[in-house]
Design goal:
Layout: H1 4-15, E1 34-35, E2 41-45, H2 53-56, H3 64-75, E3 96-100, H4 113-126, E4 135-139, H5 141-153, E5 170-173, E6 176-181, H6 186-189, H7 196-212
Parallel strand pairs: 2-3, 2-4, 4-6
Antiparallel strand pairs: 1-3, 5-6
Helix pairs in contact: 3-7, 4-5
Length: 219
């Protein structure tokens, strides 16, 4: 067992759900990435939420962060519908693929860097198979660091200084354009740190880069 802390937490969350989810069968396993295998856009999140993806078995599905993310993806033309509540609800991603830095729900939504590094090999195997990817949107600094680490392992380390995370920050990383975005967590959305128009601007920029077919070349 590589991450006993995460295994214990995801199973504890499934065994003691809040009242509104009592009686539901929790996924309570590592949550796989999903989306269009021909995607040019990859969205990297932090980790499954204990009562979101850890319950439904699909990234960002069934929680408040996902509500914000899928509305924005739908407005930008990357998702077939603006809501996602369960794995079989008909949502389809278009030209988009969703992954996470860590695949098991962590306590307090805070995985450790060691847990992230133990999950990195999964993304390392996935990303080269997504041969059309040109833009990566990292939701939060943790995901930004994970994306840079994956790029380095694939031989695409950016020249120094190391790109710093920020909302709407951009970096050319090998064949990819990396864009930073505040995570649509309640901590950010409830406080107004992240507004829907902020998300829209990030995905509009991703669309602009894809439509211009410039990849990691910024103008």
């Amino acid at each position: 067992m590589k991450c006993p802390r995460l295994v214990a937490w995801r199973e504890q969350a499934a065994a003691n759900p809040p009242l509104r989810y009592r009686g539901e069968q929790y996924w309570a396993r590592p949550v796989p990435s999903f989306g269009d295998p021909r995607a040019r856009l990859v969205v990297v999140g932090l980790a499954p939420a204990a009562n979101g993806a850890n319950r439904t078995g699909r990234m960002f599905t069934g929680d408040r962060s996902g509500d914000w993310l899928f509305r924005a993806l739908h407005r930008a033309g990357f998702a077939s519908q603006p809501t996602s509540v369960r794995r079989d609800d008909g949502l389809r991603l278009r030209d988009c693929y969703i992954a996470a830095a860590v695949r098991c729900a962590p306590p307090d939504n805070r995985p450790t860097t060691e847990e992230r590094d133990r999950c990195i090999p999964y993304v390392l195997r996935e990303l080269p198979l997504l041969v059309r990817v040109r833009v990566v949107v990292a939701l939060g600094g943790f995901a930004w660091d994970a994306a840079l680490r994956v790029a380095r392992e694939l031989g695409h380390a950016p020249p120094p200084p190391r790109p710093r995370f920020g909302h709407a920050a951009e970096a050319a990383v090998g064949p990819y354009a990396l864009i930073g975005c505040y995570h649509p967590s309640q901590q950010n959305t409830f406080t107004g740190r992240l507004k829907e128009e902020d998300l829209d601007r990030v995905f509009a920029r991703a669309r602009e880069l894809l439509d211009s077919d410039t990849g990691a070349h910024f103008g």
